[in-house]
Amino acid sequence: MTINQISQVAIVGGTHGNELIGVYLIKKFKQFPDLIKRPSFKTLSLLANPRAFEAGRRYIETDLNRCFNIQDLNTPMLIQYEQLLAKVIYQQLQKSQVDFLIDLHSSTANMGLTILLGNDHPFNLRLAAYLCSINSSVRVLQTKSTQKNNRLRSISELGITIEVGPVAQGVLDAGLFHKTEKLIAAILDYLEQYNQNQAPQSPGTLTLYYPLESIDFPRNEAGEILGMIHPSLEGNDYLALNPGEQMFVNFDGSVVVYQGKTTVYPVFINESAYWEKGIAMYLTSKQQLNCSKNFEA
Amino acid sequence: MTINQISQVAIVGGTHGNELIGVYLIKKFKQFPDLIKRPSFKTLSLLANPRAFEAGRRYIETDLNRCFNIQDLNTPMLIQYEQLLAKVIYQQLQKSQVDFLIDLHSSTANMGLTILLGNDHPFNLRLAAYLCSINSSVRVLQTKSTQKNNRLRSISELGITIEVGPVAQGVLDAGLFHKTEKLIAAILDYLEQYNQNQAPQSPGTLTLYYPLESIDFPRNEAGEILGMIHPSLEGNDYLALNPGEQMFVNFDGSVVVYQGKTTVYPVFINESAYWEKGIAMYLTSKQQLNCSKNFEA
Asked: What residues of B are in contact with residue A275 (Cβ under 8 Å)?
């Protein structure tokens, strides 16, 4: 092992103000701090964008979870509300010397229990493999190629984002709430065991999904969308999409099929917040990672 | 029959800017107007709040679908954005002499295909009974007691609101989109047959759900919510809730059960837009209406 002990964990929710599972988990942890206490490290909990939460919106001026690129944080002229908030959160977490970070998100897509990795640090990979081994419904998405290090999670090299769904914005789903809470507890237990030199053995392989490209809705020249996710694809996140299979049904009744030459695995299908980003889904490849080769730092 | 022929129908969508099924049905009808043409009447389609749609929000300043009380429409000092918009829409629909109105909504709750009635006009009841007879999944909710005549649909005595779900705000669900479109076509066909004195026979009885009361989330003295819809109730709209059955699970793990003495039928369970209104669900009673008694004007 090449890293030191974990001393300070941060759990962040409400980075997007209308993703309520994260918001109310943070509120719960603040009310019952024993839930996130472990003997060998400290854990802080943070509601990242309370003003957006109060407004019932993802953000006030710009997406907070795109404001953490280190260059942007050091650019004084970036003064939108969330750009300022990002600078303050960054200072706060740096000052607390956070060395493991969990950022809580939810999605309108059928993401189940997803672990998003922002890098391929062996510690994070081992943790992800362990979480998959204790809960076979956990999926692991390697997003480092798409994120430009501008996510809140990128403040700490060690850490993950949890993305759960499907759940509408502005709604709490008790089933997903409790599953997320259980996953957080498993992570904290793992970190505790790691600090005690008793980290559970991770399995031999890890299934990882790698984004290949984002797919936009069909649009006309004015940018208006012309169709919807096809019913046969709706909710099929992480399932195989084969060449020639249906992707979109247009308002005129025509159907758009997947034109690629290889099987892909779409994720974030019909994520509400991605409409404004021109993303109807991401296509990913599914790969087995051999732990013995990749888990050593 | 005590009403004249239907001459002018209006189909309205986007009364709430983030309920996209209505928005995109209106866009589709504008692109393919033949879909809503019938020989014996004219049909106009209206995107009610395009600015809220552009902003990806339910409304800009206040809920447009609470602005149509006739007294409010005649009060010059009511000048919030949607209050002004309501006055303009009212004038527009009055000038067009609309005599049947369909208003399109969607819900994060599992409302399926719901017809909301704002009054008990026999024409509307007969239409609702007919729609139930051709599609057994249609549910009919009589909301006249809760609405204070402030809904857009109240502009016309004849007409209904369509409420479909579950679908997240800011998302199109193709399955629900097509079901809603089919329901609208069935209504237009019915109106056409009515005008030809060939209205299909409605069945002998109609199942109606009547709101009894709204139920808020458990809250502390500061107004913060203390719990969520219990997983065993989530998605159970229109199903029986019996005395003693679970309604909420609190963050502290305690459970709130239904304290009433009779079986009720909750609707709008976990509707995102109702959080701000202090409504976690409505409880309704389920009643059979005898058509022979109630369908005569």
From this structure: 56, 170-171
Q: Inter-chain contact B171–A230, Cβ cutoff 8 Å?
A: no
Choosing among 3.40.50.300, 2.20.25.160, 2.30.130.60, 2.60.40.1120, the CATH entry for A210-294 is 2.20.25.160
Give the model confidence (pLDDT) of A186-217 as tens digits: 999 999 999 999 999 888 889 999 999 999 99
Fold of B211-294: N-terminal domain of TfIIb (2.20.25)
Q: Which two tokens stand for residue B246?
A: 């679970």
B275 contacts in chain A (CB < 8 Å): 56, 170-171
pLDDT exceeds 80 at position A123:
yes
The ipTM of this complex is 0.91
Q: Among all residues of chain A, which has the CA nearest to that of B27?
A: A251
Size of interface A-B (CB pairs under 8 A): 89
pLDDT in tens, B246-286: 999 999 999 999 999 999 999 999 999 998 899 999 999 99
Distance separating alpha carbons of residues A258 and A248, to the nearest angstrom = 9
Measured CA to CA, the distance from residue B28 to residue B18 in angstroms comes to 17
Distance between B44 CA and the closest CA of chain A, angstroms: 19
Q: Name A38's bridge partners.
A: A41
Residue B41 vs residues A120, A239, B8, B114, B158: alpha-carbon distances, Å: 64, 47, 6, 25, 14
Class of domain A8-207: alpha beta
Q: What is the pLDDT of residues A149-158, one digit of tens each?
A: 899 999 999 9
